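Sample intake sheet
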Amino acid sequence: MNISSLVNSESDQSVDDPVATPQYAIAVSASLQERRTRTLKHGDTFAVFDQRGDIGGELGNSEGLYHHDTRILSQFQLLLEEARPLLLSSMTQDDNAVFSADLSNPDLLIDGQIALRRELIHLHRIKFVWNAACYERLLVRNFSDSPLHVRLTFRFASDFADLFEVRGERRAARGESFAELQSDHGVMLRYMGLDKIERATCLTFEPAPKTLTTARAAYELSLKPNETRRIFVRCGVPDGAGLPGGADVRNVPGANGSEWSGRAFYRQMRAARHALRESSARAASIDSSNSVFNEIVRRSVSDLYMLITDTPRGSYPYAGTPWFSTPFGRDGLITALMTLWLDPTIAKGVLHFLAATQATAIEPERDAEPGKILHEMRHGEMANLREVPFGRYYGSVDSTPLFVLLLGEYFVRTGDLETVRSLWPNAEAALRWIDTYGDRDGDGFVEYYRQTQEGLANQGWKDSHDAIFHSDGRRAEGAIALCEVQAYVYGAKRHGALLAGALGHHAHATSLQAQAVTLRRKFEEMFWCEDLSVYALALDGAKQPCRVISSNSGQVLLTGIASPERAQRVAQTLLSPSIFSGWGIRTVALSESRYNPMSYHNGSVWPHDNGLIAMGMARYGQKQAASQVFSALFDAASYMDLRRLPELFCGFVRRQRNAPTQYPVACSPQAWASATTLCLLQATLGLELFDGSREVAFYRPVLPEFIDHVHLRNLRLSGGSVDVLLHRYGDGVAATVTRRDGDVVVVVRH
């Protein structure tokens, strides 16, 4: 994946230069894993806290309140008598609606003597993000048997840093910052960017602090024994700017620095909870015999729906926080594909959004060409000024075939011919791009080559600067044809034929099917490496294969382009110790010249990559292989903080009584990582839903060894819905319908 994260070095940097810094690299100095940050998100706003609920003021960390790719609050710290409180515990609730933290006072000294013994003052914080703001309630209670007078201070600031600045990019110049008191309750922090857009943060406190400046809000509280006080804070975008649906600012407590009450706080919190509950209610639900697996699933679904953002074109899963909380074409398409069985409305929103943003003209600075599907969209100052090329950027080679592939799968799943008809012109444009701009030399393969030096040099999901290479370590040069991209194109041609036939364009359907057959034959001829038992990672500009054992070869299985015999050999290779770490399939084998288990794409383990590979294995009947991948990722997730699979983790070999090694700047949560557990379950169960026949089918279902039974509820088709219990029965799996609404049929095929 993802994406503008690690890009190519400047053209004059040596391939072997270990200190050459790629453009747009994530260069923050603090590991996300070390700080164990907590994330909340709603719409285009997200917050990253430390475990106390603070936003630290240190340079080089990712904490902050962000809106539209700008950090609108870079510091928000709670102090008790000018000291940081002791952390007792903190958590993000299962539905991701609310963060809570329990804190207490440390020993407080005056002239070397204890003036206040620790753990007499209890501080309880709850925070949530809603409608472009972060809300907080602080409860302060005196557990001493004596009256206490305490000072509480909130220290705050905003650097209004562009997200790429937070990631480490340096800028030659910045705009101007201002701060002003709005009232005895409120402060406004402002920034006029070089793009002539003013960004602002409004902080409102209730009750009014004893003293309020443009950097601090201080309270002095006299508390009787067991007395409790409450303080409410809102930090966010003022004047309703950026609110979904053009919300009326009069309904936003604290806007314009106005006073607001605790009653408004609770009303907003209920609204935030309700919105999450309402969106996730569309999904099928999963319950199993394994309590840890149930926790992993609940976290996965909660993360997925927290990352989903309502756009004018429908729901769209933003790629991940903190670095990629924005629409990414590839990520959205793959996330939608993985969750199609669970909730097809995700796919519908993704397809409509990407159709609306499809390129219509040649724009070299954006790597845009007619028919090409979006790679990434940004709204920050640096994108507006073209300091980074990602305002609306099209530098991915696989988003376009994946668009057609997803539309075909969506049609099979839902039978929604109306959506297919409305999006068919976009699918046709995408197919034309595949045959023209995508295949400039006419050899039948789709290649990528950036149009300017500012664009991404590698434009597949492994887009870091050193990810595509030959067996001797040389980077591939020229127009590069990735193996998995050809598989996606094969799937796009076949699904394009299906869609054309459904719309009555039978000649076009026949032509597309013939093109798919030709591509499959040429692919086998050019990409297969007999001695390695995998498909080559890529063909370089000279049509020389990159003979590297990589996970890309496993993704080839997803669409059926591989021959059955070779698919079986690929599966065996990917489960061998050279590339299977025990926690999952590595991106490249440890025998490869660029293998590094701590790298972004050359030896790490990516959950979504493993999920797609498992889906491909299952397609070819390799259910035990898919189950082995599932078990490895389940074990990894069971060790992860919050039972949450991150974007990636390191590829070190699994050892007894050890946990997976974390990657320092991995996004967590991340959309396609959240979807991975869901697609792994689908793969092993062989679950397919066909709206045309009103059929829920299980093809040679297998339950991994850690699950004895699993109950799937609310599997929806247009003719109704059904609940199905699958349980181990001897050496097989049996299915029992526990509820049926309508004429839905459940079949098990062995």
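Comment: The mean pLDDT is 92. The radius of gyration is 27 Å.
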